[in-house]
Amino acid sequence: MLRHRNADGPIGVGFFLDERFSVVPFVSFVEVLRIANRVADRKLFEWTVLSEDGRSVRSNSQMEFKVDRAIRECESLSNVVLITGNDPISEVSSELASWLRRQNRDGNVLLAFGSASLMLAELGLLEGRRATIHWEYLDTLREQYPRVEACNTLFEIDGNRITCAGGSAVVDCGLHLIHQHFGTSIAMAVADQYIIDRVRHSTHPQPIGFRYPRVAHAKLAKAIEIMESNLEYPIPLSSLNSMIGVSGKQMQRLFKSHLQISPREFYIRSRLNLARRLLVQSDMSISEVSLASGFGSLAHFSRSFRAEFELPPTKYRRQCRLETGSVSHTHVHKISENDG
Question: Which letter, b or e, does each residue of 303-336 get, where b requires 16 or more Cβ atoms within 10 Å of its Cβ?
Fold first, then answer.
């Protein structure tokens, strides 16, 4: 639930926009709130848009957004929505860390959409909590923050923490919150405006079809699911065949006909894609990334990575960070709890 300090007044929401933030979750959630106000014919929600210094913020699509105020001008907000970009923890300042911790101490609700769950995790604000994140960052959340119960769901509500995978799931999350606070009729009226006939539940998994749109075969989809759940400790393909209930030749035909790749090649590519995400999104050493992606030999990992991405792991990491303008991650959770 959102925090509603005045039962007779609107629910207040503050949107914090980070540099190079993702536009989709921001606009989607604002629109859900705006439409709720319109269909109810009264102000159910009100919101303010914040940046760290009160200046305009440029999104990752290079669109510039004006904001209402700086975070220092808002000591305590009932509900804070974090909207970040592709590298949410590389530039978290001590001022922002202190401000978010202050919101937590005041009992306010912290909502993280898309990659922003990494920011809360880095600050230690998701420890012991259920949380989700966009599938592209899920492995990083699990590897880097083992005290977080990372879930492959659309959104999670655990006390005063709300995390959402982003994208279209932001609308599902918004409709769920409207239903909780204002009932079925208003929630369905908002859904009608979106031309939605089915609101997905919070525990609905992020569908595999987003990544593999051509996968329509149930056994192939199950094989991919098992592979992706066993990247750090790969299972033999013979064991996978037995688990799915197909022969080795049948498995080969499934992968070749639907994905134009062999099961072995697909499994290795999945592990290399995990390694790529960990290199860009975390500060794990190359050897740690190698082990986390199921390569027992660092030399084998480096050769395979270079063959797939045309650069060795170290150079790939350096190039990606130069392109995004990010710096090496500052572990802001080490900043003193008494820093403001």
Answer: ebbeebbeeebeebbeebbeeeebeebbebbebe
Token pair, residue 262, equals: 């062999």
pTM of the model: 0.70
> With left for phi above 0 and alpha for psi between -120 and 50, is residue 195 left, alpha or beta?
left
pLDDT tens-place string over residues 145-189: 999 999 989 999 999 999 999 989 999 999 999 999 999 889 989
Which segments in the chain show pLDDT lower than 50?
Answer: 209-210, 213, 327-340
The residue count for the chain: 340
Q: Give me the residues paired with residue 17 across strands.
A: 83
Half-sphere exposure of 255 (CA within 13 A, CB side): 19
Q: Beta strands 109-113 and 161-164: pairing type?
A: parallel
In one-letter notation, the amino acid at residue 159 is G
